[in-house]
Each structure stands twice: as structure tokens, then as C-alpha cells.
Amino acid sequence: MKKILAFDTSNNSCSVAISEGQNIIAYLEELRPSMQAERIIPMIEEALTIAKLGYQDLDCLAVTKGPGSFTGIRTGLAAAKGILIAANIKAVTITNFDIMHYRAKVQIASYDKIYVLLNAFKNQLYIQVFDDNDNAYKPKLVDFEEIIVLLAAEKGQIICTGSGLEPIYQKIKTCSDLILLPRFTRVKAIHICRYVDDMLNNDSKNNRLSYSIEPLYIRAPDAKIN
């Protein structure tokens, strides 16, 4: 069974998990906002202590690459790159869309599409759509009204999940073809571990993993270069 270190700093909080197979052997989270840069490395070290492992004992490192907080994404990827310099282990990057899609499939077995909606604030959402064969459409940034119209026009078994459900929930809750999953909005390192373990142990899926330590931003940075 593969030992996986996973962490997320892209969502204005951070969490760290270590797994052996599907079993979680260490988990820590920091829910205070904007603490990622300060806490992520100490949390990783503490998780390794709890699991009684060193970096050399790990088979894989997995980190979220966005979309989300620009600072949080950079913090997580920088931590991953630092660990990779010191440890000869495989690294994969996971999008927040991947994790929410994975969690939705665990809850609902039959569907036509899954809409992953992530809160981008400023009355906008990051969205990515997956069909029933796990094919993914290109992610994009949309306004609230645009996605409300799009969902109202959908037919079939349509699952909606992610942190972006909350701000539009009242506008879409009466749409008859939508299955809304509003309870699980946070990306946690626990689910990253289990997702990556599942993908690595399935020959038909592991080619979908990304090994590039590059961010997924979607929205352009607010800061402009003069």
C-alpha cells in the first residue's frame, strides 16, 4: 500500500493528511484564515511525527494547485517544491475540481453531468463540468446569473457540488433536474489522499493525474504590472 502525504492551502485554510492505502494515519487542519504560509510546514512535520514516518518513507506527495486563493496556491506549491528537493518521491498536483468531482461520485452513483462550482467571490464562480464518463470540460470563470441560466436549461440527472453552491442556492433549489450537494464544500487533505490512492492503483485512471507543479488560477491576478 502506498504512503501518501497530501496537503491543501488553496482555500484560505490548510489541512495535511498522510495515508497508507485508503487508511488515514495522520490528519491536521488549520481553519483560521490566511495562516497557510505560517502553518503548513509545521503541520507537515507534525503529521509525519504522528504517522512515525520520514519523507524517505513516502511514496507520493499530493498538493492542490487551485483554483482558489492566489497566495494560498503559491504557498502550497512552494512547500511541495521544497520537499521534492529534499526527498526523492513522486509528486502529483490536484485541482479543487478533481476533489469535489470525486466526492460527488462517491455520494451519487448515477448521473449525466456533475457541475463543480467553486466560490470565486465578486459575484463569480469557477466552474468545471464532468460527464458520466469522467470527461472534463474546460474550467472557466462565470457570473452568478450566467450559471443560474445555464443550470436552469440543463436536462437529465445533473449534480451540483462545491463551495459555489451557497451563494446561488436560493436561485436554483427549485430546478427539478438538479441534485444539490451543499453539505461538503471544503477541500480536505483526507480526500486528496484517498483520491490519489484510488487513481494510482487503477491503470485506467492514473494517466489522468498531473505531475506538473504548476498553478491553476483561471482568474487573472488583481495586481497589475505598470
Explain this structure.
- It is built from six helices and ten strands.
- By secondary structure, it is α/β, with parallel strands linked by helices.
- The chain has two domains: about 120 residues, ATPase, nucleotide binding domain (Nucleotidyltransferase, domain 5, 2-Layer Sandwich); about 80 residues, 2-Layer Sandwich (Nucleotidyltransferase, domain 5).
- It has a five-stranded mixed beta sheet with strand order 3-2-1-4-5, with helices on both faces. A five-stranded mixed beta sheet has the order 8-7-6-9-10.
- The longest helix is centred in the middle third of the chain and has 17 residues.
- The termini are far apart.
Features:
226 residues; alpha/beta; Nucleotidyltransferase, domain 5; 5-stranded mixed beta sheet; 6 helices
Please give a quick description of this structure:
The model has no long low-confidence stretch (mean pLDDT 93).
Helix-strand blueprint:
Layout: E1 3-8, E2 14-20, E3 23-30, H1 36-51, E4 60-64, H2 70-86, E5 90-94, H3 96-107, E6 113-121, E7 124-131, E8 140-143, H4 144-152, E9 158-161, H5 165-172, E10 178-181, H6 189-200
Parallel strand pairs: 1-4, 4-5, 6-9, 9-10
Antiparallel strand pairs: 1-2, 2-3, 6-7, 7-8
Helix pairs in contact: 1-2, 4-5
